[in-house]
Design brief:
The complex is a heterodimer of chains A (323) and B (508). Chain A has 323 residues and is mainly alpha-helical. Chain A has 13 helices and 2 strands; from the N terminus they run ααααααααααααββα. Chain A has helices spanning 2-33, 41-59, 62-86, 91-114, 137-140, 146-154, 159-177, 179-189, 191-196, 201-227, 239-249, 254-273, 287-305; strands spanning 278-279, 283-284. In chain A, helix 1 (2-33) runs antiparallel to helix 10 (201-227), helix 1 (2-33) crosses helix 11 (239-249) and helix 2 packs across helix 10. Chain A is globular. The relative contact order of chain A is 0.21. Chain B contains 17 helices and 22 strands. Chain B is globular and about 70 Å long. Chain B folds into 2 domains: 2-245, 3-Layer(aba) Sandwich (Rossmann fold); 263-503, Rossmann fold (3-Layer(aba) Sandwich), CATH 3.40.50. Chain B is an alpha/beta fold and 508 residues long. In chain B, strand 19, helix 15 and strand 20 form a beta-alpha-beta unit. The longest helix of chain B is centred in the first third of the chain and has 19 residues, at 118-136. The chains are: A mainly alpha (323), B alpha/beta (508). At the A-B interface, helix 8 and helix 9 of A face helix 2, helix 3 and helix 4 of B.
Chain lengths: 323, 508
């Protein structure tokens, strides 16, 4: 019983940890499937988190915070698009620049506006996305397995968690069952084919990049106004890069992307759970090492365990009409 | 529109005074052309004559600086491929515009999906494909993934794409470059069938034989100008070649009988894999003797490139043996050169030249350590310059300026520089890949003569080309490669059909 309860608790927190990764991972999927590499996921998340924290603190509305986060993140996505689509710049360099600008700007503006050491003011529960307990959640807590799944995993999550997982089938449907998805995938594989079919390559890529911005906005807002009660300097802590790793791990497919993000979420949850807990035969593992586990796993997985991941063929290549 | 019925049927396409410049390059000069409805119209010209530019303007890929286009007698503004498709113009590009990971069906509907949700559009396209299959004999599995299809079928998908969009005029840009002779024959049958159903076809090619075989009328372009349009029945390949180049050219290479001497290159059971580990050359054995040209025929991508790379020391073979003048040849490009192997690579831009370097720097590339070019610890620029001047003169390279950036020379002149560099080293074995790819007819004649001269001096020449005519014209013996195997050896006089069968994998 105690074990089951522990597993249910870890699973619940694993889901919460995986949500920002999932949003960011799907964000990257839209962009990269359209042929625009985006290592600026981290930066856009950070901008989203900061904007959400700021607007939620000023207005007291979580929804306005989310909306603002999306707008800010889309703006940064469009900057990336402007550099890499319109001006055919190097997508990696542009992504790095976005990350630097985001890190510097959020810290600086936070300090200037709020004088709280780079943080935004602590939010009240009204200005955050709080978990909703489902009916009878408490009553069913004692029922083994099903009751635990219901009360500790399904129930009690905030709305963004459900949206994140809903985004997976929606993305799948958009990508594989609609005109938009067909064109988006085509533009990432052979933009010349799209161009000669009479479709504008830049507008398809801008659309994809905008989708990426929207989802990064969700990811950022989740961090600052759902998971926490305010923005903290550099609070993304590399999640954008983990999401990118998950994307490659999932070979740029939405459903495997969800599993990859959940795997990283589980690792996060376990590493926190095991902090300070002695492990039989080893003793207490230093906190730092536990925190490093997801990153180590990323390297290991990417280095050898995923086989040959074939990126979208035209990924990273600006489209130039050949003469 | 109705009023035109009374008059003679207007041409399917009429171009009037089309003019187009790319910066300093005047690609199309005041071009006027009429293409009759329900005809197959050929457009020939050398590389850079402006054929592709003209067709790209017709398809809306570029806009003309001036001039107008009429479709079915009506002046039509074509600003984008969408406009062209609306006007009933379809194009089959030289490099297929297909998404390799998509199915045939998905490629066909791309850009004409018929609604946001794909389902109904795909179902409709499937029915339409079945109809087109029946009408034109264009069989292809709609659920096959493009990357799994042979090029011949991929091209069929391109044609289907255009027909699905309701094209009445179909432009084909160098459609046979990637096909085996029998696939090309099949394509021509399809084209005739399309014509019989009232479609108009524009065929861009540099292969005069195809023009003669399939077109009704033919237009010749030279240096951006439309030189003449004639009925195919009233002309000959020789006349067309003369119109293309502007002077008389020899289409057939003259060569004398010659008895080959000792073995120079010996290849035994050679196996070569590509970067992804796929076996590309599958245990190939052959010899090349002094004073003979051995030609390797085959459709591009059947292991010829990897074979060349292995022999010239660029790609290490997995197993097998290569001997030059009886000695084993290590896999080392520099060592191969030292042992008197010269290499004119297939892809000169990737392996043969540096376009941003001067001509003279390109002339010493790979031989830059030679005594001749040194002066103490420095390079002797003067010696390099005079050597380049001499080579340029001998190989008729124009313009004759050793300090000009190589990128500014035409393809033919770039290739002559590579040939000059390699041939003048007086090698025992000359390996030549696609010697006339992207080279104009005038230069082709010259290059062919030089290769024959090498052979007549008693050198061994290994020639790889996808142009079957070139192989048959130059080689003393022909080897045919298909799927990494040598599927046959024959005399160059062997009928094209029979060589074509071997190219498709049938044993000799």
């Amino acid at each position: 019983m105690e074990w089951l309860d522990l597993i249910a608790q870890v699973s619940g927190s694993a889901i919460r940890f995986s949500v920002p990764l999932l949003f960011a991972c799907l964000a990257g999927l839209y962009s990269e499937r359209a042929g625009v590499f985006d290592i600026g996921l981290e930066g856009k998340m950070l901008v989203g988190a900061f904007t959400a924290g700021t607007i939620a603190a000023l207005t007291g509305s979580a929804w306005l915070g989310l909306l603002a986060a999306i707008l800010a993140s889309v703006l940064f996505a469009l900057i990336h698009g402007f550099a890499s689509i319109t001006h055919r710049g190097n997508q990696i360099v542009s992504g790095v620049a976005i990350n630097f600008i985001a890190a510097g700007l959020t810290a600086q503006l936070g300090e200037t506006w709020f004088k709280l050491g780079g943080q935004t003011p602590q939010l009240t529960n009204d200005a955050r996305f709080m978990g909703y307990a489902w009916p009878f959640a408490d009553a069913l807590r004692g029922v083994p397995v099903l009751g635990q799944i219901y009360s500790q995993i399904l129930s009690g999550q905030n709305i963004l968690v459900y949206l994140a997982f809903l985004a997976v089938p929606i993305t799948w449907w958009l990508l594989y069952r609609t005109r938009f998805g067909l064109r988006l995938r085509a533009v990432g594989e052979n933009p010349a084919a799209v161009d000669t079919a009479g479709i504008s390559v830049p507008s398809m890529r801008y659309a994809a990049v905008a989708c990426c911005g929207i989802l990064c906005g969700f990811a950022g807002a989740y961090l600052s106004i759902a998971q926490s009660a305010g923005f903290i300097e550099h609070m993304t802590a590399g999640k954008g890069f983990i999401a990118l790793a998950a994307l490659i791990f999932a070979k740029w497919r939405p459903v495997p992307a969800m599993w990859a993000c959940l795997l990283f979420g589980v690792l996060d949850a376990i590493s926190i759970r095991l902090q300070g807990v002695p492990i039989a035969g080893i003793g207490t593992v230093p906190v730092q090492l536990m925190q490093a586990v997801p990153y180590i796993l990323t390297v290991v997985l990417l280095a050898g365990f995923i086989g040959h991941a074939v990126a979208p063929k035209a990924g990273g290549v600006p489209y130039v009409k050949e003469k | 529109m109705a009023s035109t019925k009374a008059m003679a049927a207007p041409p399917a396409i009429a171009l009037a005074h089309i003019d187009k410049r790319f910066g300093p390059v005047h690609a199309n000069r005041d071009i006027s052309l009429e293409i009759g409805k329900g005809t197959i119209h050929g457009i020939v010209g050398e590389n850079g004559a402006g054929k592709s530019t003209l067709m790209s303007i017709l398809f809306g890929f570029y806009q003309a600086d001036s001039g107008e286009i009429s479709v079915d007698g009506e002046v039509t503004r074509i600003m984008s491929p969408t406009d062209a498709i609306k006007a009933g113009i379809g194009m089959v590009h030289q490099h297929f515009m297909l998404v390799g990971k998509f199915t045939v069906l998905e490629n066909v509907v791309l850009g004409a999906e018929g609604g946001f949700v794909l389902n109904s559009g795909l179902a409709k396209a499937r029915r339409e494909l079945e109809r087109l299959e029946k009408d034109y004999g264009l069989q292809v599995d709609p659920d096959a993934v493009i990357d799994d299809l042979p090029v011949g079928l991929q091209q069929r998908v391109e044609i289907l794409k255009a027909l699905y969009r309701g094209a009445d005029v179909l432009i084909l840009d160098e459609p046979t470059g990637v096909l085996t002779p029998s696939e090309a024959d099949h394509l021509f049958r399809i084209l005739r069938q399309l014509k019989a159903q009232g479609k108009t076809i524009v065929l861009i090619t540099h292969k005069l034989k195809e023009i003669m075989a399939v077109t009704d009328r033919v237009s010749v372009m030279r240096r951006g100008e439309m030189i003449s349009t004639v009925a195919t029945a009233d002309t000959s390949p020789e006349q067309l070649a003369e119109l293309m180049v502007g002077r008389r050219v020899l289409l057939r290479v003259v060569k004398s009988e010659r008895e080959p001497g000792r073995t120079v290159l010996e290849v035994k059971n050679l196996v070569v894999k590509d970067a992804s580990g796929t076996t590309k050359v599958n245990g190939v054995s052959f010899v090349v003797r002094a004073g003979e040209i051995v030609g390797i025929a085959g459709v591009a991508g059947n292991g010829q490139s990897e074979l060349l790379e292995a022999i010239t020391g660029i790609r290490p073979p997995s197993s097998g043996e290569i001997r030059l003048n009886g000695k084993p040849l290590p896999c080392d490009a520099a060592e191969a050169r030292a042992q008197k192997l010269a290499h004119v690579p297939e892809d000169r831009h990737r392996l043969g030249i540096v376009t941003s370097f001067d001509a003279c720097e390109n002339v010493i590339l790979g031989y830059h350590g030679d005594e001749l070019y040194q002066k103490g610890i420095f390079q002797d620029r003067r010696a390099i310059r005079s050597d380049t001047e001499k080579k340029m003169q001998d190989f008729d390279v124009r313009p004759q300026d050793p300090n000009l950036r190589l990128g500014l020379f035409s393809g033919g002149n770039q290739q002559k520089i590579v040939l000059a560099r390699e041939i003048e080293q007086d090698p025992d074995l000359l390996i030549v890949g696609q010697p006339t790819r992207g080279v104009d007819i005038g230069a082709i004649e010259f290059i062919h003569k030089r290769l024959i001269a090498m052979r007549d001096r008693g050198k061994a020449v290994l020639l790889v080309s996808v142009e079957l005519d070139e192989i048959r014209g130059l080689a003393d013996r022909v080897l045919v490669m298909c799927g990494g195997d040598i599927t046959g050896e024959c005399a160059p006089e062997t009928p094209e059909k029979q060589i074509g069968l071997m190219m498709a994998g049938a044993a000799a």
